[in-house]
Amino acid sequence: MKPIPVNPSRVLFYGVTGSGKSSAARAYAAASGLPEFSADDDIGWLPGWQQRSVEQQRQLAGEVAARERWVLDSAYGVWRDIVVPRAELVVALDYPRWLSLARLVRRSLRRVITRQPVCNGNVETLARLCARDSIFYWHFNSFARKKRVFKEWQASPDMPPVMAFRRPRDLDDWLAGVATAASGPGDAAEGSGRPHR
After folding, report:
1. What's the pTM value of the predicted model, to 2 decimals?
2. Which among 12, 25, 34, 32 has a CA at the least distance from the CA of 161?
3. Is 153 helix (H, G, I), strand (E, B) or coil?
């Protein structure tokens, strides 16, 4: 397994649906000072729950990947091949299914009740949660495949180093360490091209 870089400039978060990738990526970006990008907001979706074409997504993903500094909260299969080779570190959230599913259910119901925007002004509804292509369907359909993907990355010498977390408390401890290191003497976070959310 490749050594984990101390201060990576390009970090990809990856995990099953509901594992908390976006929250973890946001916390890492805030702690490290790296600019944060969202797979859903910046690459995948438009208002009105219209998904960008594959060509548009690949172009936007390429623009993010080409930057020298970034944190990205996920990687869709249709453009994963663009961002993964550029990542200096992959942070994999390898949580048990029950934990990710419980988080997903709580988050989705909260969004329906509060009408909290999900991405680009889009909001969750009960109808969307019950649809055949809902986020719950996606969780079950992609769970085994996503876990297999980052295990393959861990075993491959051609992939970026992978840091896998199996418990949220371990991730929290690591993020706290990143924040402490970044706030040390002489460390000054560079300005990002995009405000942290």
Report:
1. 0.83
2. 12
3. helix
- Please state whether beta strands 36-37 and 117-119 pair in parallel, antiparallel, or not at all (unpaired): unpaired
Return the residue matching tokens 């861990």.
154
Instruction: Provide the residue-wise pLDDT of the chain in tens; the chain has 197 residues.
Output: 688 888 999 999 998 888 899 999 999 999 999 999 999 999 999 998 899 999 999 999 999 999 999 999 999 999 999 999 999 999 999 988 888 888 878 887 888 899 988 888 888 888 777 777 767 666 667 677 888 888 888 888 899 999 999 999 999 999 999 998 887 755 444 444 443 33
Give the list of residues 6+ apart from residue 38 with CB closer than 8 angstroms, or none.
Answer: 22, 72, 73, 119, 197
Residue with tokens 């570190």: 89
- Distance between CA 16 and CA 7 in Å, rounded? 25
H or E segment at 83? helix 80-83
Provide the phi-psi class of 157: left if phi over 0, else alpha when psi is between -120 and 50, else beta: alpha
